[in-house]
Amino acid sequence: MQQEWLAERFEEERRHLFGVAYRMLGSTSEAEDAVQDAWLRLSRSDADEIDNIGGWLTTVVARVSLNMLRSRKTRGELSLDSELPGDRLPDPTVVLDDGATQDPAERAMLADSVSIALLVVLDQLSPDERLAFVLHDLFAVPFDEIAAMLDRSSDSTRQLASRARRRVRGRTPENDVTAQREVVDAFFAAAQNGDLDRLIGALHPDVVLHSDVGSGITTYRGAAKVAGNAVMYAHADRVTHSALVNGSAGVAITFHGRLYSVMAFTVVDGRITEIEAYAAPAQVAKLAESLGMESAHSQG
Q1: CB neighbours (10 Å) of residue 213?
Q2: What is the structure's pLDDT at 4?
Q3: Residues 291 and 259: beta-carbon distance below 8 Å
Q4: Measuring CA to CA, which residue among 273, 262, 257, 277 is closest to residue 95?
Q5: Which ranges of the chain have pLDDT less than 70?
Q6: Strand, helix or coil at 265?
């Protein structure tokens, strides 16, 4: 009976726990692993000794995620103190924005969304900074609890979160998806027409494009460079479909009816400030499956 009760309590917390792990790790598969690890630990624990199961599970997921991040650093996968992402972009969550009513699972996913731009910045933080910022600023966990996880003082933990906050500042997109969509649609219309002036007008002068085709991330900086890349990328056989990428306006691009790539956009003050382009075959295949589509990359 106790195992059944624990399982019910765990399921009540699962969505929250995944949200914590995803923001910590930027990977849906690793986040699921961290959540599953928390369940295994809970199932083997004496529930009578746990005063607050939700808080206990959050602590476990945070510590497991922290260990995963530190392991990445050991393997050299983190680009700390750099303006560039690591060797991969954060996993996106994608829903086609076709006007149809989302099912409850999709609505829950969108409610928990965090922008790709924010995840890219979080990837540039140290593991301790990321934990302090995510738990305190995004989930309102008190600093003294976070300090205990990091084996630091509360003041030191506050400083970690403050440093992270300075890195994150200015990377929050507009909340109005309709306004975002107008800018993104204008960008693609100009690209299809080869209109460089209109393209540059849709972009912030310091716009950044991160493109992942599976062999590492290529970064383009500046409106002229990104606009030129967009014109070269435009192709009559590539069709753009409106999508919500981590809750913000984005696109899914198909080639002869198969998913070719996904693009996420950050729009601030009516201009695109950041773009993430996902075209790595393995990533696209995973996204295609989630969208009920075929991947263009699997066709040779």
Answers
A1: 16
A2: 84
A3: yes
A4: 262
A5: 1, 74-87, 99-112, 170-174, 298-300
A6: strand
Q: What is the DSSP string of 209-262?
A: EEEESSSSEEEEESHHHHHHHHHHH--TTEEEEEEEETTEEEEEEEETTEEEEE
For residue 245, give the nearest of 226, 269, 262, 257 by alpha carbon. 262
Per-residue tokens: 88: 């991969």
Residue with tokens 């909340």, as numbered in its chain: 175
Phi, then psi, of 255 in degrees rounded to 5: -125, 115
pTM above threshold 0.90: no
Transcribe 63-129 into DSSP letters. HHHHHHHHHHHHTT---TT-SS--SSPPPP-EEE-SSPPPPHHHHHHHHT---HHHHHHHTTS-HHH
Please report the pLDDT score of residue 75 as a whole number: 63
For domain 2-84+125-168, the CATH architecture is Up-down Bundle (1.20)
Q: Where are the domains of the chain?
A: 2-84+125-168, 177-299
Q: Residue 215's closest CA among 297, 96, 97? A: 297
To the question of domain 177-299 being in CATH 2.40.30.170, the answer is no
Please tell me the predicted confidence (pLDDT) of residue 108. 58
Cβ(115)–Cβ(172) under 8 Å?
Answer: yes
Report CA-CA distances (Å) from 82 to 101, 150, 159.
Answer: 40, 23, 19
- pLDDT tens for 253-297 read 999 899 999 999 999 889 999 999 999 999 999 999 999 999 987
